[in-house]
Every structure is written in C-alpha cells, then in structure tokens.
Amino acid sequence: MTQGDKHPEKFAKGQRLTAAALNSLAQSVARIIDRMQGTQVIQPKPLQAILVSDLLAAVDSLTDPSTAQARILARKANGDLEISTREETVVNRFENISIDADTYIKIEWIDGEWQPYAADCGPQSESFSFGSASASAGSASDGGPSASAGTGGP
Questions:
Q1: Is the pTM of this model over 0.70?
Q2: Would you say 70 and 105 are in contact if contact means Cβ atoms under 8 Å apart?
Q3: What is the C-alpha to C-alpha distance for residues 42 and 108, in angstroms, rounded to an integer?
Q4: Mean pLDDT across the stretch 20-39?
C-alpha cells in the first residue's frame, strides 16, 4: 500500500502486519500528526456575565491571580438577555484592576481560564479601576465617581 492508494487492501481476519508494513503505517501516522500540529484548536466564544462577588486585583499576575464566580447571560428568543443558571470562575490577572459584584462583564477563554476583557464600570459605580489610575474622575465634593487602583471598592 502506498500513500497514493485510494482503495487500500482490506485485512483478512487473523492477518498480521509485516515489519515493513508496520513501519509504513507508523510513518503515515507521524505525517498526519505533523500536519495537524499547525491547526488551530477551536476556542470557546467570549461570554457576557454578571459578577456574583467582587473580582479583586491580582496580588501577582503570574502566581497569585484573584477569582470570582460569574453568572453567564443567555439570549432569549426576543433578543433580550437573561441571567442563566450557568456559572463560571473568572480569573483576574490584572494587578491594578478590580471589578465590583453585580457588574456586567465580558470574559474570554485565555490559556485555560475565563479572563475579563471588558466591564461596565460606569457613573452608577462608586468605584472603578483601570491601569494605574489614581486620579479622580470627579471630586468627592462635586459628587462625581472616584477612580481607585486595585481596591475593589470606594
């Protein structure tokens, strides 16, 4: 049997492979594996969710991330979103970003864990964090929200 054979011989019951045929089979399998190594594995699609608890900043991005549960949002037939019963653990590796509980977030699958890539931390939030921001977006005296780096709260 050669690689070009479209209709290889079928083995009869009890027939054995010769050493040459077994080597040929092993080489064919190795070529198939080599070709497949370059293919992309299908990743889960990004999700929308609501945090169940505060997602605090990581102590160390590489060795000590923080985690929190999030309820996944599902689309109803009319196009609206609803909170489903599905929960996922969200891993925060940002050292300067915390996200409050009950915040709408978007998460994506990165290296085997769900990580946040967007969060709705708007004016209704007393605290929002991004980068190493420590300046206020409005002063406490004028009633505007304040930014806090990695505190997870006001």
A1: no
A2: yes
A3: 13
A4: 76
Q: Specify the amino acid at residue 46.
A: P
- DSSP label at residue 141: G
Query: Looking at the predicted structure, is the pLDDT value of residue 24 above 50?
Result: yes
pLDDT at 96: 95
Instruction: State pLDDT tens for residues 88-125.
Output: 999 999 999 999 999 999 999 998 899 999 999 765 45
pLDDT band at 13 (very low <50, low <70, confident <90, very high): confident
The two structure tokens encoding residue 46: 């990004």
141 near 147, Cβ under 8 Å? no
Q: Provide the 3-class DSSP secondary structure of residue 16.
A: coil
User: Which amino acid, one-letter code, is at 135?
Assistant: A
114 near 124, Cβ under 8 Å?
Answer: no
DSSP letter at 22 equals H
Task: Parse the chain into domains and list their residue ranges.
Answer: 47-121
Distance CA(33)–CA(25), nearest Å, equals 12
Which residue in the block uniquely carries the two structure tokens 């909170």? 83
Classify 140 as helix, strand or coil.
Answer: helix
* CB-CB contact of 47 with 107 (8 Å): yes
